[in-house]
Design brief:
Blueprint lengths: L1 H23 L4 H17 L3 H8 L1 H4 L2 H19 L3 H9 L1 H17 L7
Helix pairs in contact: 2-5, 5-6
């Protein structure tokens, strides 16, 4: 039961930080997305994000920093298996489940939603 609390608190903290950046800074949501994904990659490379994933599980892997974590882990695995060329394919392979889910659920919502014109 305590694990669920940590998942909620860590994931909520990551999302709250992003919301604060949206509300208080002049950064666009797209730039914050890039910052989060890049931060996930950098924190994984320097060895800081893995312990957070072990501690918080989905609270650390579901937000956008978790996508950067998946890219970095996949790239590292690709390099270990294929050498230099693994740099190019490993990240996409590591994040393929998340990418496929995003495409599938995006399509599903597009079928259900009723779009309206912007005014």
């Amino acid at each position: 039961m305590l694990q669920y609390l940590w998942v909620f608190l860590v994931g909520g903290a990551l999302c709250a930080i992003a919301q604060i950046l949206i509300d208080k800074c002049k950064l666009t949501p797209a730039r914050i997305l890039v910052i989060y994904v890049t931060a996930g990659v950098v924190l994984t490379v320097i060895g800081v994000y893995e312990p957070l994933v072990d501690f918080a599980g989905c609270g650390a892997t579901v937000p956008l920093t978790g996508f950067g974590y998946s890219l970095a882990k996949g790239a590292a695995k690709g390099v270990a298996e294929k050498g230099f060329w693994g740099i190019f394919s490993g990240g996409v392979t590591g994040a393929s489940a998340g990418i496929a889910a995003a495409v599938f659920f995006g399509y599903l919502v597009a079928l259900i939603a009723k779009p309206k014109e912007k005014k």
